[in-house]
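Data availability (excerpt). The following record was deposited with the supplementary files.
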Amino acid sequence: MALTKAEVVVGQYTLFDEILADCICAQYFKKKGSRRFILWRNQKFRVFVNYLLDETYLIKKLEAVNALKPVPREVKSMVYKVNSLRNAMAHSFFPENRKEHRATGKVSYDSKDIRTKDGISAFLADCHEAWTYLARRAYGVWDGIKEGDGKWDEKKRKVVRKAKAVP
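Predicted structure:
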């Protein structure tokens, strides 16, 4: 069974929503020296997820993650694009008639029609790059790449101090 383009876009939106929630949970519930932070047996964790995170929109989660530690411009841009495409496709039968797409008559992603093979391929490739960055933020390691070593990660600069000459 093949997925429709709208299902693919909504699926990517859901993945970003989940990984941003995991980034927030990792910040507040992860203990030092442990990789574990999904704590469904913990009452505070369940309340936090069920009453706060589940009720928070994608863009607000992105803003919270960005406030904790800045998110690269490219990743933020991708999340905003996913949110916009998801809203267009989830809230209307004919998203090409919405004001943001009416000029071209098609739903575009980076000037490519999202309903074409090229459009959906570019969309998924960009989503993957942004998602893996956020996964490294949440889990520390993703696809064998540690946080700080991947695309868009801040490279930790080694400070080299020169020894003072003793007279």
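Summary of structural features: Residues 15 and 110 are 20 Å apart (CA to CA).
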